[in-house]
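Translate structure to sequence.
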């Protein structure tokens, strides 16, 4: 088979149908725990432990960790928020339903699938193999219908209000059906249904990102805030990676549907890890500021008795910034061959970090704000991610500046916020005089 043209060349002139590259999350779960012995052996070919007993012990620990990951992934995915049902469209007459579903499958096969391609190897199997799998797994079929319905609305293909309402209702109903069926299958993952379940898991995350882009969404569901939505999306992306790591053999199978894309991605990430490149003054300064803020936060919390940041949380902050650097590096060096690596970042940052962000930990919020810069860039080529990065920067910057912060790190925090806002095109409207603050009014950095 001739190699499929790089998707970045296919859709470069159409932002709505542009290349998301987010399937990197689906095709790169190994990197979710890159510091484990298993991942090191798989990716970097490090020396094997010559001690057989040591190898057996590590193998046992890996199995225990995989079982734990499996349970965590099932829990996160089973809690994937259901969308509220509206007037039934899916239950309409069989003829009208058949016509709608043919229309939605056509949309997937000609347009929607393209926004999920990451490498040049992805288009054939997303366009042909995934729909074929969907005929055997209803959750994937309904997921495709739901995503394609949103694509028709957001892409502007649906013209009048009545049709917009109908497609929006259909998207909600199909997602509801898909989610219910998917949850029932979580305890029965096999080699036959793994890729179908994995694809739907990612569709669920993309669907959750895309929903607010529909004008009708706000009429039927109160806003939960961008940070709340981002926390859910991050957990869903982590669950995707967890599912992949449980079935690492299938993901790395050179003869399998994901093997070629995996090889491309792994090679690129390994190169960025082994040979870090200079990212330019702006990004380098931004990442250095984050590191300084983390160190200052850890020192101040160690010095004070009234509050504390655990050493493990501080380590998770540093780990998140380390992988943020890799994400910026991937964008700088491999933007034409591996797209959307930033969506792997939540899993790479780790569960403790994502939980900290969910608790509104200020340092985690600042780091996520920098990730949102990459998300904003992704949104320019992936219709379902449009505006989320920019909105996230706006909400985090406002929230952090309204919270109490320490005087001696205020300047760098303010600079970090201003940098992120400029990167996503927000005006510098944050007038905040840290020097005029009364120190007695300042609370801990992490709330």
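Result:
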């Amino acid at each position: 088979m001739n190699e499929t043209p790089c998707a970045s060349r296919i859709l470069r002139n159409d932002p709505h149908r542009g290349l998301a590259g987010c399937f990197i999350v689906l095709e790169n779960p190994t990197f979710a725990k890159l510091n484990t012995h298993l991942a090191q052996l798989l990716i970097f070919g490090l020396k094997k432990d010559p001690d057989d007993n040591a190898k057996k012990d590590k193998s046992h620990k890996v199995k225990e960790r995989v079982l734990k990951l499996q349970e965590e992934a099932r829990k996160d995915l089973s809690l994937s928020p259901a969308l509220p049902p509206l007037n039934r469209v899916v239950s309409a007459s069989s003829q009208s339903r058949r016509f709608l579903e043919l229309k939605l499958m056509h949309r997937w096969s000609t347009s929607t699938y393209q926004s999920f391609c990451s490498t040049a190897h992805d288009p054939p199997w997303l366009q042909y193999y995934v729909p074929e799998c969907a005929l055997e797994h209803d959750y994937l079929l309904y997921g495709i219908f739901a995503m394609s319905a949103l694509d028709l609305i957001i892409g502007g293909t649906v013209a009048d209000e009545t049709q917009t309402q109908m497609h929006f209702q259909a998207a909600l109903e199909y997602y509801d059906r898909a989610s219910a069926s998917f949850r029932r299958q979580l305890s029965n993952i096999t080699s036959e249904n793994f890729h179908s379940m994995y694809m739907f898991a990612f569709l669920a995350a993309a669907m959750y990102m895309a929903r607010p882009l529909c004008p009708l969404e706000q009429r039927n569901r109160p806003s939960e805030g961008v940070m709340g939505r981002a926390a859910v999306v991050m957990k869903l992306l982590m669950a995707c990676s967890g599912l992949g790591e449980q079935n690492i053999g299938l993901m790395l199978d050179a003869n399998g549907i994901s093997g070629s894309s995996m090889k491309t991605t792994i090679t690129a990430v390994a190169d960025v890890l082994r040979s870090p490149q200079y990212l330019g003054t702006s990004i380098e300064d931004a990442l250095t500021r984050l590191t300084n803020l983390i160190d200052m936060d850890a020192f101040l919390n160690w010095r004070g008795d009234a509050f504390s940041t655990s050493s493990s949380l501080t380590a998770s902050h540093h780990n998140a910034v380390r992988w943020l650097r890799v994400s910026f590096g991937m964008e700088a060096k491999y933007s034409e061959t591996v797209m959307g690596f930033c969506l792997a970042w939540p899993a790479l940052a780790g569960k403790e970090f994502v939980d900290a962000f969910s608790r509104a930990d200020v340092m985690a919020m600042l780091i996520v704000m920098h990730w949102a810069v990459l998300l904003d860039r992704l949104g320019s080529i992936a219709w379902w991610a449009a505006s989320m990065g920019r909105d996230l920067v706006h909400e985090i910057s406002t929230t952090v500046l309204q919270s109490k912060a320490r005087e001696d790190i205020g300047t760098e925090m303010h600079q970090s916020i201003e940098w992120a806002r400029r990167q996503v095109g927000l005006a510098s409207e944050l007038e905040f005089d840290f020097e005029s603050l009364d120190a007695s009014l300042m609370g801990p950095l992490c709330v």
